[in-house]
Structures are given as C-alpha cells and as structure tokens.
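Reviewer has doubts. Consider these tokens.
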Amino acid sequence: MAEQGEIPDHVNQIRTRVVLESDIVKNTAATNFPNTYPDIDDSWRHEDFCQKFKVKVYRLTDMEMEFDLIGIDASIANAFRRILIAEVPTMAIEHVFVFNNTSIIADEVLAHRLGLIPIYADPGKFDIKRPGDNATDANTLVFQLKISCEQKPDARPDETDPNRKFINANVYSGDLLWIPQGDQADRFKDENAIRPVVEDVLLAKLRPGQVIDLESTASYRLLPEITIKQEIVGDLADRFAACFAPGVVEVKKEKGVKRASIVNPRRDTVSREVLRHKEFQDIVQLSRVRDHFIFNVESIGILPPEKLFMHSVEILVEKCVLLREALERKIEDSMQE
C-alpha cells in the first residue's frame, strides 16, 4: 500500500481539495473511501481519525465563537450545522392566550412576534413538555403582557411625538412580565431571573384606548486556500491584492521590488474576482481544503456559544446511539427469522 507521501500530486489534489475555476468548481465529491485509487488504503480507522482531527478556536466572546474543525467529513460538519440551527433546545413562547387585544395588530401576528423573542432561561434546567403532558413549574414558564395606552396629562396640544404625547405608545419585549410558578422564584433569581434577552424589541404600537392583555407559556464553511504558482511582483502585486478581501494578501517591498504573498486565507470570501483577470489566471489557483471547516456560532444570549456547540455534539451522539441500537435490533430480528 502506498504511503501518503507517495501519492502523486494531482491525485492528492483530487482527494483533498475542492478547486475553484472561473466558470466551474471541480472535485466536489469526496473520494476518500476504500478501493477508489489503486494501492491507496482509505479505510476509516479510529486511530487515524484521532491523529488527524483537530479543533482550533480563533475567537470566543459571550455572543460569538469562531473555530475550525479539521479532519472530518463534510457530512459530519453539516450535521453539526443543522443541529445548531434546528435541534439545540431553547425556551420559547409557544402558546398565547389573548384576553383582550384592541391594537391594530392581529392576535395571530402578535403571538408570532412573541414566539420570536429569545427568553433568558437555561433549557437544561427544565423538562421537555411532550404532547399530552400537563404544564408544571418543571416544564413551563408563564409570562404576562398587560398594557394600555393613555394620553399624557401634561402633553402639549400640538405635540406630535407619540412618546411625549402618550403613555405606553410602544410595547416592547421588556414589558413582558414573568410570573413564577411553584418554586421557580427561588430557583431563578438575581442574575438568573427569567426575562427576555433583549428588552427593546418592538412588539406593537398603541394609541389611547387600545389595550393588550394576554398570557403566554414557554416550554421546552470550508477553509479557502490560495496557491500562487509563480512570484507576483511590481504593479501586479497591488492589483493582485485588490482582488481579495482586505488582509488576505500582503504586499511587501523587498530590495526595491514589491512582492505579493498570502498571509490570511481565512478572510477570503472566494469571490473568484482574481480569475476574471487574464494576467492572473495561470499563476494562481483557488481551492478549498476538503476536511477543514470554519464554524461561526452566534448566540442570541440565552446560552454561551461554546455551550451551544457542545449541545449539538451531545445530540449527534444520541442520534448515533439510537441508529446503532436500531441496526442491532434489525440484525437480531433477521437472524431469528
């Protein structure tokens, strides 16, 4: 069997790079499975995976995290992406009971807007409320929105600013009042108190005489690679740098000659602008590393971004265990037949 270093360059490029040309993208399908290439063993081994797999965190704040997953298949990276989007649990308003709504916003539209408000509550501290389950303090949060608009007694007759002319002219997410149930007041207090993450989300506009009275319940990309095939010097260096996002290419003057070099391919948006210029078409190649994925996880403030990703890993593990158990049962049933 051939070692990695013995693989011809053109074959290795097909196996490891997605190549971008001016009018086509090549090598989009993965080929790293057994018997694809003679004398190359691409069988999956746990030891090889552990040796190649890496996680590099480049930026971490309270709201965002940028990190790279290196050495995994696109299907796994895509699974994390889809789980983060749709399956990491959050507490969100699900049912809205409208007792009175005389605003111009229809009940169903107002309920939809309420459902989009991020609620500061750790879903891990609540049980999942399944169909048919009764609402309890262990699986449900209750919010109340009771607000009416009135004329300000001291407002000038010619005042045109609604905020100066009326009381409660605008209804914001911060007007939602959390009504603790059971022992929730003791479990969630001080900085852990249940509340909307953002308090200035506009929900509705009211005018004198209009009222809202309701109650709601809440329950549970690839790394770019830019290869310069020959030196780019002189005026071409500046023109080359202008084809990329700021920070991708650096132009230095050495011994009186300008030279272009790639310093941070992560910033490249892969616009392929450089391939529109004939002078660069034969001296630069754009590609993406097949097993190197850049993740940007943005939190809305309920959970830190690193915790969101760990939740996605746990969910994927649960799915794998469930699939394995189903396959084992299927094999057992087939053997008994």
Q: What stands out?
A: The radius of gyration is 29 Å. The domain at 92-219 is CATH 2.170.120.12 (RNA Polymerase Alpha Subunit; Chain A, domain 2).
